[in-house]
Amino acid sequence: MTENTDKNQPISVTAKDLPLHCPPPDAPLWARHPRVFLDFGHDGETKCPYCGARYVLHGPVAAGH
Asked: Are the CB atoms for 58 and 18 separated by under 8 Å?
């Protein structure tokens, strides 16, 4: 997962980041909210219902995800 300091830009994730949850483990204390697991749609994008962070999946996904 790439760090994102501009909340207007999507956060890039790969198959190794799955299962994906927000906030990420390295999020600063001020950016924490209840952990929510996120599912990707067919377009490879998802958005956190708490903070609005947008995630974009890049690369192949392993079977079962």
From this structure: no
Residue 26: pLDDT band by 50, 70, 90 thresholds?
confident
Neighbouring C-beta atoms of residue 7, cutoff 10 Å: 12
Q: What is the mean pLDDT of residues 1-5?
A: 56
- Closest residue by Cα to residue 51 from 63, 64, 34: 34
Contact between 15 and 62 under an 8 Å Cβ cutoff? The reply is yes
Distance (Å) of CA 8 to CA 18, 54, 65: 22, 8, 26
Phi, psi of 36 (to 5 degrees): -130, 130
Local structure of 54: helix, strand or coil: strand
Handedness of CA 18, 13, 39, 33 (dihedral sign): positive
- Considering the entire predicted model, what is its pTM? 0.77
